[in-house]
Amino acid sequence: MLIIAVTGLRGAGKSLVKEVGEEFGIPSLEMSDAVLDAMERIGVKRDGEMGSVDIRDFAKMMRERFGPDVFARKTIEKLLEQGYQTVIVSGVRGMYEIETFRKHGRVVIIAVVADKQLRFKRTVARNRQHDPKTYEEFILADETDKGFGVDEVIENADYVIENNGTIAEAKEKVRSVLRTIVRGGSHL
């Protein structure tokens, strides 16, 4: 199995890798889906519902209780169930998740990076329910993600895609990287 692990901070443009992956016929999964599935399975209400729990707080609690790679293990279960040979897994937060994935196949890490102010503007514009609404909340969310180990995954990435330009420019960078990966090309 080839796992293309995508990492980056909120608003960097990780979803562009998924979109371009679809052009290549590569299925994708979100690490956050494993978190949301766990919340649903045990009856924890999601952000915004009466008596709800913040998804980041829930993820942190689950990692503390069941190990830092708990959601990577859940994602692997889903990958094996689906029978994917090549898959994009977006939202990788720590090297412990990468190590879990490496037990099941070849892993290539793509990091998507962008300037902080631009990421904040994108986050506000997309207006997702669980996204921070103020700059202070945004910084706190960054610190939470960094606490999970995102910076280390970015530092260990096989490919780094800078996404400070247009969507078209970023997608072309992603296409180039995915062409290299799916052809088995070297990144060295």
Features:
alpha/beta; Rossmann fold; five-stranded parallel β-sheet; 9 helices; 54% helix
How would you characterize the overall build of this protein?
54% of the residues lie in helices and 14% in strands. It has 188 residues and is α/β, with parallel strands linked by helices. The chain has one domain (2-182): P-loop containing nucleotide triphosphate hydrolases (Rossmann fold). The longest helix is centred in the last third of the chain and has 16 residues, at 167-182. The two termini are 21 Å apart.
What sort of overall outline do the alpha carbons produce when their principal axes are compared?
globular
Distinct helical segment count: 9
**How large is the share of residues in beta strands?**
5-15%
> Segments where pLDDT lies below 50 for 5+ residues?
none
Instruction: Please trace the helix and strand order, writing H or E for each element.
Output: EHEHHHEHEHHHEH
Summarize this, please?
The protein is α/β, with parallel strands linked by helices and 188 residues long. The protein has one domain: Rossmann fold.
